[in-house]
Amino acid sequence: MMFERFTKAARAVVKGAVEHAERAGAAVVTEEHLLLALLDREDTRAADALHALCPPDRRPSLLAALAEARRRAGLSRADTEALADLGIDVGAVVARVEEAHGAGALAGDRKDAGWWSGRRSFSREAKAVLEKSLRVALARKDWEIGDEHLLLALTATGGVVAEALADHGVTYIAVEDAVSSPAV
Length: 184
Hints:
Elements: H1 8-24, E1 28-29, H2 31-40, H3 45-53, H4 59-71, H5 77-85, H6 90-101, E2 121-122, H7 124-139, H8 147-156, H9 159-167, H10 172-180
Parallel strand pairs: 1-2
Protein name: Clp R domain-containing protein
Pfam family, one: Clp_N
Keywords: Repeat
C-alpha cells in the first residue's frame, strides 16, 4: 500500500484533511481539504514553501477563491469559459439556484443527512492527488512521500485547487524551486 511510504508530515496532512471534511460535514474528503490541511502545517517542507509563496496575509484571498469556486459547484474558470462558449452563463445559473434554494446551494458541502459508514472516503480527485504524489516522489527519486509531494501533486492535477494556488503564485515550478532550495 502506498501509505507506508508517507512520511509523518504527509500522514498528518491526510489525517488533517479528514478532520477538515468532518468539521465541514462533507461526505467525502476533497482536494480542498488536502490543501486546508497543508495550510495548517508548520515546520515542514510544504509549509515552508507555502509560507514563502503564499504568505499568511494572502491566505484569506486564497480561501475566498476556493469558496467562490465551491459556490459555482466546483467549476474552474476553464469550465466556466467553456460553458459560456456554449451560451451558458454560470453566474446566472448560480444566482437562479441560490434564489430558489438559498446561498451556497451548489457548494456541495452541506451536511449529508443520508447513511454514513463512519469513515470518510476520498473523492476521485483527492485520490488522484494522492496517487500523483507517489509519481512526483518517484520522479524526484525520493523513496518516501512527504507533504511537499502532496503540495506538488495538488499544483499538477489541474482543477479548482490548482487554479486557485496558481493565481496566488503557488505553481508546480515555484513549489519545486522552493522545496529544492537549501534551508536557510
